[in-house]
Write a structure and sequence with these properties.
The complex is a heterodimer of chains A (35) and B (229).
Chain A (H helix, E strand, L loop, with lengths): L6 H27 L2
Chain B lengths: L13 H31 L7 H5 L2 H27 L19 H4 L11 H4 L3 H7 L1 H31 L7 H5 L2 H27 L23
Classes of the chains: A mainly alpha (35), B mainly alpha (229).
Chain lengths: 35, 229
């Protein structure tokens, strides 16, 4: 379903999904690695 | 020319562009000022100052980021979910008073009522359609829960560093989950989100912002709810 719409719409969706995913992995990893 | 095609280039994605820039600027500002504050505390505790990189990989930075993320995603998850079943007479943020609930397949344009250009998962049946019908809330809920988890893990480490400096016993994760520090960080964010969202729903009954889709048209009567025409 995310393959539908224009290329730019997919790029924008991808950038925001990356912001969130990278951010979540980062904060969880920091918390876990410091335990 | 189709409706909306008069706007071309990056302006078609202006909202996401502006918010991307604002997000990165604010995060950079938080990193720099957070590091400065952290170092002030280090000096007053008689400890050596740390580098920016050290601060950015500290649990102190992680918990500050995570606690704000979780509350924002909780706010939007609840707003999307609660506006399915709860309405507010006169609010631009509410559906019409007689539209409470998930709507019929015909209204939602799914299954047999899907249009040729509807998303493929809206045309599908069973699990895929159910998942897609709730995908926005599911995404918000996932980010909320993971951010809250990150807040709890990083918050535990951050508090334990302070406990050690004060020569006090560290807390386990389970102890931290019921600690005043965890719930104080959590609830101070939640209360502000609920207040802001509630006031937006109520203020939009009587107040207007010309041109904003979050507002009724300036001349719309106060008793007109949402997109009612």
């Amino acid at each position: 379903m995310c393959c539908e719409g224009t290329v730019t719409m997919r790029v924008v969706f991808g950038i925001w999904a990356c912001f969130i995913t990278v951010g979540l992995i980062y904060v969880i990893a920091i918390g876990v690695l410091h335990r | 020319m189709k409706k909306g095609e008069s706007v071309t280039g990056w302006k078609q994605h202006g909202l996401s562009t502006v918010f991307s820039v604002l997000f990165l600027l604010a995060l950079t500002g938080q990193a720099l000022t957070g590091a400065a504050l952290y170092n002030e505390q280090q000096v007053s505790d008689g400890l050596s100052e740390v580098t920016l990189l050290h601060y950015l990989t500290s649990s102190n930075f992680a918990v500050d980021v995570a606690e704000n993320w979780q509350s924002e995603y909780l706010q939007f998850m609840l707003y999307i979910l609660l506006t399915v079943w709860f309405v507010q007479k006169g609010s631009a943020e509410s559906k019409n008073l007689d539209e409470i609930g998930g709507g019929s397949d015909e209204e939602q344009e799914v299954g047999a009522y899907a249009r040729p250009d509807s998303p493929s998962w809206a045309k599908a049946r069973g699990f895929r359609r159910t998942l897609y019908s709730n995908s926005l809330v599911a995404a918000m809920a996932t980010v909320f829960l993971l951010s809250w988890l990150a807040q709890s893990v990083a918050g535990q480490t951050s508090l334990n560093e302070e406990q050690l400096i004060g020569l006090e016993a560290p807390l386990t994760w389970a102890q931290y989950l019921v600690s005043a520090d965890f719930w104080s960080r959590t609830l101070q964010n939640w209360q502000s989100e609920f207040l802001a969202v509630g006031s937006m729903a109520v203020f939009s009954i009587y107040l207007r912002q010309r041109g904003s889709p979050e507002s009724k048209p300036v001349g719309a009567p106060h008793q007109e709810t949402g997109t009612e025409t």
